[in-house]
Design goal:
By secondary structure, the protein is α/β, with parallel strands linked by helices. The protein is built from 17 helices and 17 strands. It has two domains: 3-254, TIM Barrel (Alpha-Beta Barrel); 321-375, no CATH class. A nine-stranded mixed sheet has the order 9-10-8-7-6-5-4-1-11, with helices on both faces. Bound molecules: iron/sulfur cluster. Belongs to the anaerobic coproporphyrinogen-III oxidase family. HemW subfamily.
C-alpha cells in the first residue's frame, strides 16, 4: 500500500504576528467547536480516499494548533487513531507556540501518538519578540521547551527567524548560541520576507521598518550555518538543520514533491498528480461542511512538465540535491536532456554542481536560489 503524508490545518492564533500572511485568525474562540466538527466531517468525506494509503507522517499545523482546548484537540486525535492506517513509528508533529502550551495538553499529545513538537520561537530578545508581534517572552519559551522534554518529547523543532527589523548580527548570534544550548533535534532558520497584507508590509510601505541589508541578511544566514554545523546539526535543506536522523519526514515529502492529503481550512492536497485546495474563509468552510457542500475550490491536474519543474526547484532546496537517476526512473524522462541548457549554464556560473547522480546548489547557488529555481520552469 502506498504511503503518504497528512496535513491538518488549525487556523486559530491568539493574535496575528506582524510578519504573518498564513491562513490564520485571531479572536475566534467561538469558532473552535464548529471548526473541529467541520474538520471531522471533512475526514468522513475523505475517509475512502484516506483508506487507500498508509500515513507515514502527520503534521498538525496552523495557525497555532496548541491554542485548541484539550477536549477539541482530543476529538481530532481520537479520530486519527480510530480511523486511519498509521505507519508504525510514523512522524507525528504538532505546531505550537509558547504561551499556549501546558502539561495537560502536552500529555494528551504524547498519549495520542504525537511524537514531535514544533515550537515557534523566532528570537531570543524579549524586545524583538514584542517588535514582531509574538505573544510570549523568551522565558515562557524556555519553560515550555523544558516542560515538553519533561513530559517525554524526544523530538523538538524550534523555528527561528533572522533579518528582523533592527536586528543586529550579535543578537542573531545570541539567539543561535542559546538555542543550541537547549539542544533541540531540529532547527528551522528562515529569513524574514515582507509579505503583502501584513502589518510589516504596511509599515514597510510607510518607511517605518529598518531591515538589515541584503549583505547583513546573508551574513546572518552563514552565521546560522556556521554555529549550527559546529554544534553537530546537519544542514539538510536551505533553511533547515537537524541532528543525525531527525530530518523532518513531513517536509521532505513536500521537497520531494510526493503525495499528501490536506484536511482543514485552505489545506492543499496532492494526489494522483492532481492538486486541490480547500476554501479559505473559515465561516464558508464551516457552513459548507454543515450543509454537505464541497469545500474544495481548486482542482487542477498537474501535467508531467509541471511536475518535473516542481521536482527540480523543490528538490534543489535539499542540500544533497536531486537524485537524477531516481527522477528519470520514476517519471520515465531524461532530466539531463530536458534541462541540458540550464544545467550547463548554472554549472558554468558556479551555481550548481553535479556529482554522480546528484545535482545540487553550491553556496553561491543557494544565495541566488530563486534565480536558479526560475530557470527550471518549463515554458
Ligand atoms: S503564531 Fe504563527 S500562524 Fe499565528 S500569527 Fe504568528 S506566525 Fe502566523
Amino acid at each position: 500500500m502506498k504511503e503518504i503524508g497528512l496535513y491538518i490545518h488549525i487556523p486559530f492564533c491568539h493574535s496575528k504576528c506582524f510578519y504573518c500572511d498564513f491562513n490564520s485568525y485571531s479572536n475566534m474562540k467561538d469558532k473552535f467547536n464548529p471548526y473541529v466538527e467541520g474538520l471531522l466531517k471533512e475526514f468522513e468525506i475523505k475517509k475512502e480516499l484516506l483508506s487507500k494509503y498508509i500515513i507515514k507522517s502527520i503534521f498538525i499545523g496552523g495557525g497555532t494548533p496548541s491554542l485548541l482546548p484539550i477536549d477539541e484537540m482530543k476529538k481530532i486525535l481520537d479520530y486519527i487513531n480510530d480511523n486511519l492506517k498509521l505507519k508504525k513509528n510514523l512522524e507525528f508533529t504538532i505546531e505550537s507556540n509558547p504561551g499556549t502550551l501546558d502539561r495537560e495538553k502536552l500529555e494528551l499529545y504524547l498519549r495520542s501518538g504525537i511524537n514531535r513538537i514544533s515550537m515557534g520561537f523566532q528570537a531570543w530578545q524579549d524586545y524583538m519578540l514584542k517588535e514582531i508581534g509574538r505573544i510570549h517572552t523568551k522565558d515562557e519559551f524556555i519553560q515550555n521547551f523544558k516542560l515538553a522534554r519533561e513530559v517525554g518529547f524526544e523530538n523538538i523543532n524550534v523555528d527561528l527567524m533572522f533579518g528582523l527589523p533592527n536586528q543586529t548580527i550579535e543578537e542573531w548570534r545570541e539567539t543561535l548560541e542559546n538555542i543550541v544550548k537547549l539542544n533541540p533535534e531540529h532547527i528551522s532558520s528562515y529569513s524574514l520576507k515582507i509579505e503583502d497584507n501584513t502589518i510589516f508590509a504596511r509599515k514597510y510601505d510607510e518607511g517605518l521598518l529598518k531591515l538589515p541589508s541584503e549583505e547583513e541578511d546573508r551574513k546572518m544566514y552563514y552565521l546560522a550555518k556556521d554555529i549550527l554545523t559546529k554544534n553537530n546539526y546537519i544542514h539538510y535543506e536551505i533553511s533547515n538543520f537537524c541532528k543525525k536522523g531527525y530530518e523532518s519526514v513531513h517536509n521532505v515529502i513536500y521537497w520531494k514533491n510526493e503525495e499528501y492529503i490536506g484536511v482543514g481550512l485552505g489545506a492543499h492536497s496532492y494526489i494522483n498528480k492532481t492538486r486541490t485546495s480547500n476554501l479559505i474563509d473559515v465561516n464558508e468552510y464551516i457552513k459548507n461542511l454543515k450543509m454537505g457542500n464541497r469545500i474544495e475550490i481548486v482542482e487542477e491536474e498537474n501535467h508531467i512538465k509541471d511536475h518535473i519543474s516542481e521536482c527540480m526547484f523543490l528538490g534543489l532546496r535539499l542540500i544533497k540535491g536531486i537524485n537524477i537517476y531516481e527522477l528519470n526512473e520514476t517519471y520515465k524522462v531524461n532530466i539531463e536532456q530536458i534541462y541540458e541548457k540550464q544545467i550547463k549554464k548554472f554549472i558554468d556560473e558556479g551555481l550548481m554542481k553535479q556529482e554522480g547522480q546528484y545535482l545540487f546548489l553550491t553556496p553561491k547557488g543557494i544565495d541566488l536560489s530563486n534565480q536558479v529555481f526560475m530557470g527550471f520552469l518549463i515554458e
